[in-house]
Design goal:
Helix content is 72%, strand content 0%. The termini are far apart. By secondary structure, it is mainly α.
């Protein structure tokens, strides 16, 4: 089995470029573009592709795995921070609600004091009205008594005048 040397198309280097001197042209080069025909002529074996892929993966995979792990840690830390933040927010809400409750109790005390004052005023007014009613009843009874006494006085005077008036004597 003989191994033949690979054939390179025109424009593709077959050896190291340092063998050429300054101003020398590469033998077999034409004036066409160096990329022309390169893809068609290049025979790529599956094993080489697999090795290149493994090399590429072995080169980048550890960094990607470290980055993935770092992102997972960051995500977990963010979840922990969010939970802590939610707890702190709930504590602030509780404090705020406690302030609201304290304000309500203060307001309730204020209105309770107002109610106590109103009740005192109502009791005082009730006492005054009771006294006024008693006084009015006494005055009414006194007036009725005076009116009755006047009426009795008039009747007495009328009777007295009646008795004082001359009565004609009856002749028998």
């Amino acid at each position: 089995m003989s191994v033949s040397e690979p054939q390179f198309p025109d424009g593709v280097l077959a050896g190291p470029p340092f063998a050429l001197g300054p101003g020398e042209r590469m033998p077999g080069l034409s004036d066409i573009s160096p990329d022309e025909g390169l893809i068609e002529d290049l025979n790529v074996e599956d094993k080489a592709v697999e090795q290149l892929a493994e090399g590429l993966l072995s080169h980048y995979l550890p960094d990607l795995q470290r980055s993935k792990q770092a992102l997972q840690e960051l995500t977990q830390n963010q979840v922990v921070l969010l939970d802590t933040l939610e707890q702190e927010i709930s504590k602030f809400k509780e404090c705020h609600s406690m302030l609201d409750i304290n304000a309500l109790f203060t307001e309730a005390k204020h209105y309770h004091a107002k109610l106590v004052n109103i009740r005192k005023e109502m009791l005082m007014l009730h006492e005054k009205t009771s006294k006024l009613k008693k006084r009015a009843l006494k005055l009414q009874q006194k007036r009725q008594k005076e009116e009755l006494e006047r009426e009795q006085q008039r009747e007495k005077e009328f009777e007295r005048e009646k008795q004082l008036t001359a009565k004609p004597a009856k002749r028998t």
